[in-house]
Design a protein that fits this description.
The structure is a single chain. This protein is α/β, with parallel strands linked by helices. The protein folds into 3 domains: about 110 residues, Cobalt-precorrin-4 Transmethylase, domain 1 (3-Layer(aba) Sandwich); about 80 residues, Rossmann fold, CATH 3.40.50; about 80 residues, Cobalt-precorrin-4 Transmethylase, domain 1 (3-Layer(aba) Sandwich), CATH 3.40.1010.
């Protein structure tokens, strides 16, 4: 009898799919740039840093002929190199020109917007505080938009320790993939300590990051456990897991279906499923199938925003096919 009850409980369990989830316009564009470069110029095509932070995507492009490097010194003279979606510093751009490399820039346009803001703020004579994660390539690229006058803070404690030249000439920008809630707290701390600080005209956290976090905020309270599909080095994927945990739900980050653990699902009635902006839908589908093979048959996609944003490819590459 107990076995029947257990089977019945599993049949009643369901998977809630967050919407939106997965690829954003910047990731779509970055992958398309690498694929178009491979089609047009042939392998190898060098890519500085992982084009996006997802193992499946990087492995797939590597199999097609992309060579991922961390430094331009690894790229042969005269070769074609692509800058990742996270953006690069002015120094990297100068080095590429000096070495005569053919460059395609896959920097997300929303990251480029932040770079433009930094240049404008520095032209106004302001020091710039970047809210971001130390060592993340997007933070390094943005900090590298000026040779001086840049500061990085991750949290309120960093704000308390921050030393600036002139508190009256201060501005801030943010990494595009942060937790909206955490970022709001750091901005509040900056404004409390430096009342004259100015920010960007429009929030730097990208639309996809906001939409996916909002979707988890709607989904997580309805679930017993949340699964986020994304790679461990994906900032926005990690933030989705944090959002769910901050709402009091167990949440796990998985690269693919093989990382699912049956014990996470034991006795759970509702399993929430989402994916970071660099995780392809094929991985979500595989996780969905694995969850169903574990006995959770019902699937319900929640209502959510339909994202219709498309970023064009760089000049000289033509429109996306």
């Amino acid at each position: 009898m107990s076995d029947k009850r257990a089977a019945s409980a599993q049949e009643e369990a369901e998977i809630l799919l967050a919407k939106p989830r997965g690829f954003c316009a910047g990731v779509d564009r970055a992958i398309a740039i690498v694929e178009r470069a491979l089609e047009t110029h042939g392998a190898p095509i060098y890519v500085r840093h992982e084009i996006v932070h997802n193992k499946y995507v990087v492995d797939d492009l590597r199999a097609k002929g992309a060579v991922f490097v961390e430094e331009l010194a690894e790229v042969p003279a005269g070769a074609t190199v692509i800058f990742s979606a996270h953006g690069v510093s002015l120094e990297v751009q100068r080095e590429a020109r000096a070495r005569g490399l053919k460059v395609f820039d896959a920097t997300c346009p929303l990251v480029t917007k932040v770079h433009v803001e930094v240049a404008r703020m520095r032209d106004q004579g302001r020091e710039v505080v970047m809210i971001g994660h130390e060592g993340h390539p997007e933070a390094e690229g943005t900090l590298g938009q000026s040779d001086s006058g840049m500061h990085l803070v991750e949290n309120e404690a960093d704000v308390a320790k921050l030393q600036v030249r002139d508190p009256q000439k201060l501005a801030y920008v943010t990494q595009t993939t942060l937790s909206m809630d955490d970022c709001a707290r750091v901005i509040a701390a900056l404004k409390a300590r430096f009342p004259a600080i100015v920010g960007p005209k429009k929030d730097d956290i990208c639309y996809a990051t906001q939409n996916r976090q909002d979707a988890v905020k709607i989904m997580a309270p309805q679930c017993d456990v949340v699964i986020v599909v994304g790679s461990p080095n994906s900032s926005n994927s990690n933030r989705l897991r944090e959002v769910a945990r901050n709402l009091g739900r167990e949440a796990y980050l998985v690269d693919d279906a093989d990382e699912l653990r049956p014990e996470w699902l034991a006795g759970r009635k509702r399993v929430g499923l989402t994916a970071g902006a660099s995780a392809p839908e094929v991985l979500v589908h595989e996780v969905l199938l694995r969850l169903q093979s574990m006995g959770i048959a019902r699937v319900h996609e929640l209502e959510g925003i339909d994202e219709r944003i498309i970023f064009p490819l760089p000049r000289g590459m033509g429109n996306a096919g």
